[in-house]
Amino acid sequence: MRSLVLACLASLAAAAATHKPRYVLYFDQYHTASLPNKTVTAGITHVITAFAQSSLFTTDPPGDYEPFMNLTAVRAMFDPGTKVCMAIGGWGDTAGFSKGAATDASRKLFAKNVAATVSRLGYDCVDVDWEYPGGNGDDYRQNPNSNKTSEIETFPLLLAEIKQAVVTKCRDRDVELSIAVPGLERDMIAYTAKQVPKIDKVVDFVNVMAYDLMNRRDNVTNHHTSLTGSLAAVDTYISRGMSAHKMNLGFAFYAKWFTTAKGVTCDHPIGCPTEVLEAADGSDTGKSGAMTFEASSFAGVPANLVDSPDGSCGAGTNYRCPNNACCGQYGFCGTETGHCGTGCQSGFGRCDGPSTKDSFFKALANAKYDSANGGEWYWDATTDLFWTWDTPEIITRKFQEIVVKRALGGAFAWSLAEDSHDWSRLLAMQANVKKLSQSHY
Ligand SMILES: *[C@@H]1O[C@H](CO)[C@@H](O)[C@H](O)[C@H]1NC(C)=O
Ligand SMILES: *[C@@H]1O[C@H](CO)[C@@H](O)[C@H](O)[C@H]1NC(C)=O
Ligand SMILES: *[C@@H]1O[C@H](CO)[C@@H](O)[C@H](O)[C@H]1NC(C)=O
Ligand SMILES: *[C@@H]1O[C@H](CO)[C@@H](O)[C@H](O)[C@H]1NC(C)=O
């Protein structure tokens, strides 16, 4: 009787502990110019450095991964005890995963290599960011989904090998395994009702990328990270067998823009026809893009510009493009439409298209709120640009109407320093996580 009572108390304690919400931030190598202080990062439970290339783990011995910032320096930015995780993959990095997942031997090698790297660098956890098993990744026109059907079966097997390998290798600590999963049902190819329970069983948590819900493969406008779109993503996973408490709801610290079709008046956020945003070969037509909420997106052009020595340019640098070249939205000099057209950074070189930055400020100043769907948007009639983004107020609604209502395990965002303009999104997440921890939801 006595031991039964004790056992029950122990399990109650365990249940309470699992209710501490996860608060996870990706920390990516492309955004390190302006970093938050420890007041701003307080409460974060996991930080995930991004990215290690998947192909590093397919060779014997593995490739030599070094994080972009040493982990001592990373840890110093957060509360003591914050877990630091290694993300593998990211958009466009699928080949190494495909190779690693293929056979029993390749899965074991991949897992052994991941465990060795996690152990060597002293990571606390590992995040598999394969976009996406089963297809619809960046390479879907070159390597069609029909060539990836086996990944639907092998993905959970690869995850199980990785979890087993890291736990065996790092006996001193409980190394968690997480995955980042697509927000659009059309991309959930490997997340079928048959496979999800197997995936759910082996992972510790799941980051639901409830953003980019409109992307260049669409031909009409939509919110990219609305409340309704995010809820639909979560509910699809739940209906296929994912445990709610393992899921973290994803937030994006960037706005997206899309060029609407000529002659269209877009006075509503959903369903305006766009220009062709993705070419038949799967490449970007340069008619859509993103603008982060980082400090450099709001800064003026520096006075002391010099000619770029290495082809990089634009916000966050002092480099302009020489030889009348254009500085494209991703910070590289060139003369293609992708550099000179919409998204081009005026002030850092020639531009042939409209200034996205001016349009961004116009959108922020004249923002419209779609309360029914929980999305902020604006259509700029001068440039034909449709804007879609998330505000601190909508973040709070998503916590109440998704994280709490569905009893999710927590929340995460891409990415830490993309909010450096005023940290308002990060601070909204911090406040909401704090409220969650106090409410014992
Ligand atoms: C930390 O950063 C925030 C936001 O920039 C600022 O308001 C605050 O004063 C800073 N705190 C410290 C202790 O520097
Ligand atoms: C890590 O980075 C910090 C800060 O940049 C530096 O002081 C320290 O020496 C580095 N540690 C190692 C092991 O490289
Ligand atoms: C099909 O998949 C295999 C195995 O991953 C790969 O080696 C091959 O290159 C792929 N085919 C195409 C057309 O990319
Ligand atoms: C727009 O996209 C839908 C769904 O992907 C597709 O069925 C339709 O053919 C597309 N329309 C045009 C005009 O490309």
TrEMBL record:
<keyword id="KW-0378">Hydrolase</keyword>
<dbReference type="GO" id="GO:0005975">
    <property type="term" value="P:carbohydrate metabolic process"/>
</dbReference>
<dbReference type="Pfam" id="PF00704">
    <property type="entry name" value="Glyco_hydro_18"/>
</dbReference>
<feature type="domain" description="Chitin-binding type-1">
    <location>
        <begin position="310"/>
        <end position="353"/>
    </location>
</feature>
<dbReference type="GO" id="GO:0008061">
    <property type="term" value="F:chitin binding"/>
</dbReference>
<feature type="domain" description="GH18">
    <location>
        <begin position="21"/>
        <end position="434"/>
    </location>
</feature>
<dbReference type="InterPro" id="IPR001002">
    <property type="entry name" value="Chitin-bd_1"/>
</dbReference>
<dbReference type="GO" id="GO:0008843">
    <property type="term" value="F:endochitinase activity"/>
</dbReference>
<keyword id="KW-0147">Chitin-binding</keyword>
<dbReference type="InterPro" id="IPR017853">
    <property type="entry name" value="GH"/>
</dbReference>
<dbReference type="InterPro" id="IPR036861">
    <property type="entry name" value="Endochitinase-like_sf"/>
</dbReference>
<protein>
    <recommendedName>
        <fullName>chitinase</fullName>
        <ecNumber>3.2.1.14</ecNumber>
    </recommendedName>
</protein>
<feature type="disulfide bond">
    <location>
        <begin position="321"/>
        <end position="333"/>
    </location>
</feature>
<dbReference type="Pfam" id="PF00187">
    <property type="entry name" value="Chitin_bind_1"/>
</dbReference>
<dbReference type="GO" id="GO:0005576">
    <property type="term" value="C:extracellular region"/>
</dbReference>
<feature type="disulfide bond">
    <location>
        <begin position="326"/>
        <end position="340"/>
    </location>
</feature>
<keyword id="KW-0732">Signal</keyword>
<dbReference type="GO" id="GO:0006032">
    <property type="term" value="P:chitin catabolic process"/>
</dbReference>
<dbReference type="InterPro" id="IPR001223">
    <property type="entry name" value="Glyco_hydro18_cat"/>
</dbReference>
<feature type="signal peptide">
    <location>
        <begin position="1"/>
        <end position="15"/>
    </location>
</feature>
<keyword id="KW-1015">Disulfide bond</keyword>
<dbReference type="InterPro" id="IPR011583">
    <property type="entry name" value="Chitinase_II/V-like_cat"/>
</dbReference>
<dbReference type="InterPro" id="IPR050314">
    <property type="entry name" value="Glycosyl_Hydrlase_18"/>
</dbReference>
